[in-house]
Amino acid sequence: MSAKWRMVLWFTLMMLLLAAVTLTFVLVMNGSVIADPASRLVKTVADCADAVEFDHGVFEWDEMKEYTRGVYCTYYDAEGTYLRGAVPFAEPLELPLQTGSVRPVTAGGKDWLVYDSHVDMSITGFWVRGVISADAAAGPGRVILPLAWSLLPVLLLLSVGGGWLIARDSFLPLERITEAAGSISDGDDLSARLDLRRGPREMRRLAHTFDGMFARLETSFLSKKQFTADASHELRTPVAVILAECDRAKRKAETREDFLASIGVIEQQGSKMNELIEQLLSLTRIQQGTEKYPLRVCDLSGFVDACCDEFVPADERGVTLATDIAPGIRAAYNPSLLSRVMFNLLQNAYKYGAENGRILVSLFRENGCAVISVKDDGPGIPKAEQEKIWQRFYRCDSARAEGGTGLGLSLVREIALVHHARAEVVSEPGQGSDFRFVLPPVDPAQ
Ligand code: ADP
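Above: the input record for the complex with adenosine-5'-diphosphate. Below: its predicted structure, written as tokens.
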């Protein structure tokens, strides 16, 4: 059974219970204080008669009541002689004892109802007379009982109906959440949002959380889609060049030199594809965490120095490389990933730096962090592009001719994430670029 129906059932049962208790209470009270005066008089006289006992020729009056529920009771012996009890008026009532009916009398300027009951006790007997003011109790039972009978079913209906409506409204958002989640998991509509503005606060919060989750899912799906589209696009160009070159060689090449020239083009495009695939694989491995890259605290100064020594530029263009490495700096890093960072930054500095220019690699401490800086004196990067260059496949227009994959810097950013480090660029157009890789301070205990 759904939670909605359970709640409604619970409401109904509770209201039925409440109605039953109220009606029982009304019925019980009807016999005592809220009944009309005549029936209250008859019942009270009967109760008072029951309370008197006769034992070994003597009356026991312990339980006797002279006044109860608005009824005055007087007791007489079998001959009609007054024994005890109370009356609400001064002079005695000139009315013979008589069973069977409630009689109206007027005494002391007021109207009364009188009821007599004779109790037979085999050897003897006695009389109980009850007197009640005719207008003392207007008989609220006569009003309450019909009112209760007519109002309670209406209240019951209202509470069950209201409960059902509230339950339905409260659970409606859950149904929408289920639907939206269903359509997202079926892959139909990633842009589905609940956008719940009305309804219980808890549900609105839940819907809001779901909307946030849906939005993140959509972004992640879209970026995956974009990534695949970009990767295929980037691979398509070298493949097209290779196919065109093969076709050209088949149709036009005649000499060995012609063939070698075509093979050269194919080789160049092949190695471009190779580099692209390598970078893509590295990116995926790092992002998905399929390969473990443990960080170890060790000497960074020697490592950066060695990376600069070992680096062989693809095209030197008369550029010189200088270093300014502070000795004895330690940091937590993964050598294989950090050498990738050094390679990418140095390669870019050679590629985009000025011809016959100068590259300066420095390592220093700043606010406890270890900062690796690779600075060139190239054209620099416009402010508007400084954030974009870290995106996958993004290449500034000015760099299109240089050849490259557009993945180098996004790989540097991913590696920074693994190191809890920052990768940033400080650059002004015309004044070169300073790419920085900022590693967090090392715990002195390590
Ligand atoms: P790639 O170099 O393969 O194009 P990267 O991700 O390494 O890809 O770089 C992205 C873009 O950032 C480059 O296309 C280039 O426009 C710009 N860039 C990177 N390094 C430099 C630099 N040192 N000087 C100027 N522009 C740079």
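Notes for the reader.
Residues 344, 348-349, 352, 376, 378, 381, 389, 394-396, 399, 404-410, 433 surround adenosine-5'-diphosphate (CB under 6 Å).
The chain is about 50% helix and 20% strand.
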